[in-house]
Amino acid sequence: MAGMTSIARPYLNRRLAEFGTTIFAEMSALATATGAINLGQGFPDTDGPEEIREAAVRALRDGRGNQYPPGPGVPELRHAITAHQRRRYNLAYDPDTEVLVTAGATEAIAAALLALVEPGDEVVALEPYYDSYAASIAMAGGRRVPVTLRPAEGRFRLDLDELRAAVTDRTRLLLINTPHNPTGTVLTREELTAIAELAVERDLLVVTDEVYEHLVFDDAEHLPLAGFPGMRDRTVTIGSAGKTFSFTGWKVGWVTANGPLVSAVRTAKQYLTYVSAGPFQYAIAEALHLPDAYFDGFRADLQRKRDLLSDGLRAAGFEVYQPRGTYFITTDITPFGEKDAYAFCRTLPERCGVVAVPNSVFYDDPDAGRSQVRFTFCKRDDVLDEAASRLRHLAS
């Protein structure tokens, strides 16, 4: 017919053909449609510190950041990031050449992989993994090689022999996440030492996602991989304000690394968002200078919420893998006689009025997480109590 065009090739780039709408968008839409409590997507239902919100308002009114901020980020924030790294971990970075502010950690991940990975390079990543990892590796033309964290003795563990075996002559980069989303695993000093030794031995780059650095519980300790021998100049460390200060909508993240690595990541980043979050950058600069009491109190409050929801999930009949970090709890649904987590999560709003996320979408092999379901506990106590009450209907 005249005027019609035939397109022989699909519109979507073949590298992204396996990716559709994210599970978070799908489940959040389901929560909205059913009026269910959303324990699927990890965002708090209360704002962070009032003084930090007011700092953003003050920046807006003073005209700071209302126009394009500097490409690497405003100096106040870059200096605050380096001060934070020095104070918390004794890691020294140059705020002018070794820090890059990004539109959240998600852009930092994408920019790092686009900058450092070429077509055919292998990227070894711990699975289950945050879904943007797979998409970013694909956009860079890399090949992802999963190393699976497996449940044992109530938590998920890394098999270091499996990690070593995954590295080949084509491996370019290790993509590490600790504290780990979605399992809540916090890699130990021994595990991180082995990862560092492997990276040095095989001359690998490492991108390490540490956005939950302040959310570690019980006897767990967050140890930046960049602080281990031989890692300072081969590690790109990614941080974020969203999870630490409960302002996820501000999308303020950052990269710290040596000068040449930051320069490479900045080259890719400048063609993604260019710059973002101008006024919020000034506010987060102030947030990073909050006293230790804030970070300690925030962590203690989230640990209490973790215990509140964990107890409720056990009472409902789930097998619970107690997280040592993040604000997610992974559970297993086999005690209910069910094995398909995706189907379980699709029907859970109708059955109980609660939304969760199936972990199977975070694996290359969905069977590895077929019966796992993730809940978030970064919600008000009354919301968690009500969710636990609704979920107890499953036990009956």
Number of helical segments with 4 or more residues: 13
> Major sheet: order of its strands?
2-10-9-8-7-3-4
Radius of gyration: 21 Å
Summarize model confidence as the mean pLDDT: 95
Question: Which SSEs are present, and which pair or pack?
Answer:
Layout: H1 23-34, E1 37-38, H2 50-62, H3 75-89, E2 99-102, H4 104-116, E3 122-127, H5 131-140, E4 143-148, E5 150-152, E6 155-157, H6 160-166, E7 171-177, H7 189-202, E8 205-209, E9 235-240, H8 242-245, E10 253-256, H9 259-269, H10 278-287, H11 292-316, E11 319-321, E12 328-332, H12 341-352, E13 354-355, E14 357-358, E15 372-376, H13 381-391
Parallel strand pairs: 1-13, 3-4, 3-7, 7-8, 8-9
Antiparallel strand pairs: 2-10, 5-6, 9-10, 11-12, 12-15, 14-15
Helix pairs in contact: 1-12, 2-10, 3-10, 4-5, 4-9, 11-13
Quick synopsis:
By secondary structure, the protein is α/β, with parallel strands linked by helices.
Q: Which tags fit this structure?
A:
40% helix, 396 residues, 4-stranded antiparallel sheet, alpha/beta, 7-stranded mixed sheet, single chain
Describe this structure in words.
Helices cover 40% and strands 16% of the residues. The radius of gyration is 21 Å and the shape is globular. The chain has helices spanning 23-34, 50-62, 75-89, 104-116, 131-140, 160-166, 189-202, 242-245, 259-269, 278-287, 292-316, 341-352, 381-391, and strands at residues 37-38, 99-102, 122-127, 143-148, 150-152, 155-157, 171-177, 205-209, 235-240, 253-256, 319-321, 328-332, 354-355, 357-358, 372-376. It has 13 helices and 15 strands. The protein has a seven-stranded mixed sheet, sandwiched between helices. The mean pLDDT is 95. 47% of the residues are buried. With 396 residues, the chain is an alpha/beta fold.
